[in-house]
Design a protein that fits this description.
By secondary structure, this protein is an alpha/beta fold. The chain has one domain: Rossmann fold. 39% of the residues lie in helices and 15% in strands. Helix 1 links the parallel strand 1 and strand 2. The longest helix is centred in the middle third of the chain and has 15 residues. The two termini are 23 Å apart. 35% of the residues are buried.
């Protein structure tokens, strides 16, 4: 996870990266890549506290400052408060990776209209995460935004 793999040219050294759904799967890979590039990842998790803790410990042993916060992406007021807490601990949030998503846990033939509506609603909560973060980070020039969706868990 060191930055010896030629990723320093991305200019992420010391940047704070807030990653929704960052405790597992694609989110944890993004967090590792950010750490390798010199960023300080902050993991937002909903269910996998242990995974978030392991990932933060791993990144810290590699010399990165890493943090984790339990998050409900629907509650914009709490997200804004959490961003203020992250900023007091890490500095301004420079990168937001909207990765959190849910997927159906049943066979495709068993997916109902209600499940599709739930998926659509839940998987667009990243927009709320963006609303929760954007007002609290500097200028648009200082803000990098990546819209990702992870549906394979």
């Amino acid at each position: 996870m060191s930055s010896q793999h030629g990723m320093d040219h991305y200019g992420l050294k010391g940047k704070v990266a807030l990653i929704t759904g960052g405790s597992r799967n694609i989110g944890s890979s993004i967090a590792r890549a950010m750490a390798s590039a010199g960023a300080n990842p902050v993991i937002l998790y909903h269910e996998d506290k242990e995974g978030a803790q392991r990932l933060c410990d791993e990144m810290r042993t590699c010399g990165r400052k890493a943090g984790m916060y339990h998050a409900d992406l629907v509650d914009v007021a709490r997200l804004r408060a959490m961003v203020r807490q992250v900023e007091s601990e890490f500095g301004s949030v420079d990168i937001l990776v909207n990765n959190a998503a849910i997927r159906p846990r049943s066979r495709i033939s068993q997916i109902t209209v209600e499940v599709v509506i739930l998926l659509k609603t839940k998987n667009f909560q990243d927009m709320l995460a963006t609303r929760g973060v954007v007002p609290d980070i500097g200028t648009p020039e200082d803000f990098w935004k990546f819209m990702l969706s992870e549906l394979s868990q």
